[in-house]
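Pasting as-is:
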Amino acid sequence: MFTSTSVAWQPETCKSCHLEKYEMWNESAHAESLKAAGGSVVDIETCTECHLESSIKEVWGREDVETTIEPITCEVCHHPPAEGYDAHLNDPSAHLPEVDLSAEMCGNCHMGSHHPIIEEWDEFQTSDFNISSMASHSEPTDIAEPFILGSDKSCVSCKATDGAIPNLADPEVYGLNLDEVPEASEVSEWRITCVACHEPHSAGYWIEDEVLLCGNCHNSEHASPDGMTISVHHPNWEMYNSSIYDTGLHPGNIGCSDCHMAMKEYNDTTGEPAITGHTFDFEPELLFSPKASNECYNCHKEAFVSVVNEKQDLVAGRLDNLETLKTNATASLERLNGTSTYDTALTDYNNAVFYMETVKADGSYGIHNMEKATEYINNSDRLFNSVVGRQAAVSQPGFEAIFGVIGLLAAFQIIRRRD
């Protein structure tokens, strides 16, 4: 039986029961936090506040356990149970340390001008955030999409950190791990926080392949042009597939973070803050800047910003044209209702909407995959026009109409003879 609180903070103590987690931590940046930036930070006061366990606890006001000169260890992130660590060591299941899924937990250190991760991530708290038109990982689902509270686990798996963690245990994009995902009523963190993407003990990704990591949520859930589907949600994975980034035609291994996390290092001379990319916004002006650390500038230079804008403007313009064509096709479809060609026209109409909505919902205006975006827009244009064309054909006299006219003429002739 453990009786001394002084041993509780030592990772070696936790190792006896949590060997796998210990080994992950032992190879992480947290375990090496005293040697950050290529040297020792023990004597640098501004660094120790986040790199030294004892200083972290002092800054956070942690007076619950003994502190010593250690790197970032277990109890920095796991607060002790109310009865103290001894109680957990003696009866682990009855007295569990706190597990905090919030971004603020990590943001206590991952903040400030050198690494403003929490500030960038927390867009929801900014004064110009518009909940009706903007989306962010920091946006609480229970506020922005309250209907999710009554939905099934498949929604919880991507709309809550509690659901994302067990869901990512299966690295397959469509492999929802619903047996482990909690019910909506059991969710504690409705935002997508740091630990939804980062395994906290290793500080790495839950899934090493970041495209699979993002694709586990950013996919259209098997949506297809089946003649009925007209609503498509977040088809980013499907658009990325077969693109130049996926097939290797673009030099290098291009993943989501290469474009959606444009980064810039802290400027020691001017004090200009770093940019970590944790808004996940696509920002061409930074991405193709010599100040960015993503190295896109090396090949594309700053002039590529205008190329990107032109490509997106072209797709945006075609989508606007499709909206007009959709209006015309809708009117035509209504006039076809009740005719023998209605079902076929409805299938074409729904598929046209599917292709258009896929490009719109992807949100990249073709940048994820210009070839597929162009193909889908062309498909939508052709199918909408087929609906409009059917209406025009129906307005022309058919065989039935011709035979009807002939019958009327014959009747008039008989009546005239009788007269």
